[in-house]
């Protein structure tokens, strides 16, 4: 593992509007950096391009964190984590990092990393965990969207599948909304096309995922456990049914490529089965049948909703793998190589 020294112990706190973006080859060699990366790290563009991304690795970061990152992205899935990076002068900065594979014609051609300012609570928790790992007192458990995806691939459950979906959505919207919409090349898709064909569908799919995860799955459990009243539970579920129907119709009304049309067709009977099952749930709530909702939550809830959540995940993948704008070369920062 590369050890970058010296370190000063001085933190460089990021601005709230800082968005650090970089792209690498499949082997982690930097191919693109934006202005914020240059200004925060203290390296000039020429010192970064062509170098391994671990040029900013801080020695306090445990190797297990980066093993988890690489295991996740090499499996074709996004990774999210809190990372301590080293500046050229030895100072450090904390980021919430989102790393996702970049694909062309279904083949991974590199990785994109989008980093924002980490909260003080995130930093405190990460510092304590990483210190314990380095001292041999703890091991790293994968967290965030990447972990949810990894777990779902091994043992698919509605909970992990939907958490993974929401993580992918958040990353997709961040990259498209925060980077692509500002840097469209004249030769690429127009801003309006990207917004309508990628960002809007992601938002619509997010509503579907949210409604299944929160207003149906969680509501069923909370009503069964007494955390919600029967009236509150019924209201949540009925709202979810309306929003799912509205958002799904809106999504299928957008421009769909052939593979999306196939997935939508496959989803149709799954949606019908889920809707029929949720109708049964609303009937149970109207009757206030405690035994029936307990049986439903254990035996029927997951088997009918898990398949449609899987299709939603596949459709989200289609949005993230579809044509995306390429950023223009970053304006030259004031940092100069010496």
Distance between the termini: 26 Å
Topology as a string of helices (H) and strands (E): EEHHHEEEHHHHHHHH
Main beta sheet: strand number and arrangement? 5 strands, antiparallel
Describe the global form. elongated
Determine the structural class based on helices, strands and strand pairing: alpha+beta
Q: Ranges with pLDDT <50 over ≥5 residues?
A: 142-165, 176-192, 322-333
- Using only C-alpha atoms, the radius of gyration works out to 22 Å
Helix coverage percent of residues?
55-70%
- What is the topology, as strand order, of the major beta sheet? 2-1-5-4-3
Number of strands: 5
pLDDT averaged residue by residue: 78
The fraction of residues assigned to DSSP E strands is 5-15%
Number of helices: 11
Descriptive overview:
With 338 residues, the protein is an alpha+beta fold. The chain has eleven helices and five strands, in the order E-E-H-H-H-E-E-E-H-H-H-H-H-H-H-H. The protein has helices spanning 35-41, 45-48, 63-74, 120-134, 144-154, 158-178, 191-225, 230-252, 258-287, 290-299, 301-321; strands spanning 19-24, 30-33, 79-86, 92-104, 107-117. The chain has a five-stranded antiparallel sheet, with helices on both faces. Strand 4 (92-104) and strand 5 form a beta hairpin. The chain is elongated, with a radius of gyration of 22 Å. It starts with 18 loop residues before the first strand and ends in a 17-residue tail after the last helix.
